[in-house]
Predict the 3D structure of the following.
Amino acid sequence: MYAWKMTELNADFELIESPFPALNDDEVLVKIAGCGVCHTDISFWHYGVKTKHELPLTLGHEISGKVVAGNHEWMNKKVIIPAVLPCGRCVLCYDNRSNICQNQLMPGNDFDGGFASHVKVPYKYLCPVPEEVLDKYPLKLLSVVADAISTPYQVVKKSGLKEDGFAIVIGVGGIGIYGVQIAKITGAKVLALDISDDKLNTAKAYGADAILNIKDLDIRSTKKLVRGIASELGTLPFQWKIFEMSGTKAGQELGFNLLTFASSLSIVGFTLDKLEVRLSNLMAFDAQLIGTWGCKPELYPEVVDLLAQDKIQIDQLVETFPLSKINEIFHNTLDHKYNKRSILVPDFD
Amino acid sequence: MYAWKMTELNADFELIESPFPALNDDEVLVKIAGCGVCHTDISFWHYGVKTKHELPLTLGHEISGKVVAGNHEWMNKKVIIPAVLPCGRCVLCYDNRSNICQNQLMPGNDFDGGFASHVKVPYKYLCPVPEEVLDKYPLKLLSVVADAISTPYQVVKKSGLKEDGFAIVIGVGGIGIYGVQIAKITGAKVLALDISDDKLNTAKAYGADAILNIKDLDIRSTKKLVRGIASELGTLPFQWKIFEMSGTKAGQELGFNLLTFASSLSIVGFTLDKLEVRLSNLMAFDAQLIGTWGCKPELYPEVVDLLAQDKIQIDQLVETFPLSKINEIFHNTLDHKYNKRSILVPDFD
């Protein structure tokens, strides 16, 4: 098999050939159809965030593919590999919190991941892709279900957003654009906030009821405009569900300041920056901050079902490249040259 | 009737005599048995927090008493008056969030409250006190159910604390001491943190499994000791339920830093101070911050039932004074001279 390995910080990935790995009883070998490039990969490769497994390591955790060896019940199945693979046997798993299982394994972090021809994974939580979804999308595109779609799915579900609710998505990039679509499925009114007109227009095309470019607005003005939009859309002035998907300090500050009575702010994007907040506002508003990590594999079939029903769209939001161009793609991603999620497709044959 | 009215910031309360107020169809007149002195009253009287109703105003929102006029079905009933009186007809009330109802009324804030001989209130959400509880406690002492006991009750309930859980109560004063008792009822292990040995010893006597004086400890040392205590008590190193009941910046900072995987921090105490936090930790921990305001009246009967079952103790935690001493009591409370909750008992007869 072949893999493009990260050998050291900021260095070009190296193509390495190796024998197929030995499989344990609970594992299968998946021939990779596609693997998405996530901000987390860039953090490992460029920003010095440490992978749990030492280098060299194959990055990539948004993987779809076909089982080609191991447990015979899984043979030839087309699958999505969840980005979080819990143990399924611990207190947190039994308590419906498998996404934060303390024994969880993540491809491209705890073990060799998806920028390769094959990947060895435990099969317990693989998500089989039904034929009706494969009729709509080639398997390689479904790689983005792992993380880019499933993470905002869990987020919206945890928030309790309902039909008569008001969702505010801050940052409608690679994750946020699915946040908009998923929020919309609930029947709620959805407002997209971003600093890019391009991204906002895409959000509008994918279901946002209103968009607002906040590039030159301070928090007070934004808040006033958001109140006006909520009113125009006929939603209530409280119980807002705010989703911070930009992963920036400015986004978190805005989100916190948009909180009102009985509302919540979900922290989805990650930044190392701290910010100054009055936590007691949460008490006065009876409001919540909801941190959410990945997505439990148990929810993946629900996401796939939404794809089958055409309630979530992928095609115009992703772009495929040959995996052999990985070094170029990573540099371009770092330089913000892509508006769409990049999927790397193995080209070893 | 008689009332001790706040006329201006920091001024002595003035005894005012007035005719009984006219009652609307949805209101009753309650002859007051006792009214607790809360930190919120001190904030109105001394710290310049504005009451919603203009001055002069009778403060006091922790009230018990007997219905003496109005709707005949309520006549002669002994009742606790919830500190938050929702409308019962709005979206938030129907959505099980009546404690943050936007039409809510609070005695001693929206209308004349409990430092008086009588109070006029809507009867819809009054909590009748059963005889079995009156056999245990004089009605005047039950005033502390409104707020001091009901608020931490709602908090613990919202946190989802369970039998095998670990509760950390930061600040075991007037509210926190009930937080400890209520957390203990769930069967969880309870750790009390405070800077007063006296308060910690009381917490120990009222059910805390462990106590820790954090007066001279930095956050890092506290965290290490808390981990050790969690281990000694045989609880898990994650899913901690942390309750900030001190209403201080230091308490909130400690609470935020004690967060770990799948845990939550409930913000119960109030402070105007801001603090600097890395909100993204919530994402990495899949953790929550839960702000909680008052207690919905629908939960009061559950609290009264716990008193009936002797699962919550009051007597050693309160001290009664004649209402005519209100000015002295407020000054002493401001100077932190009391370790127990003060209840003012009308002495106009």
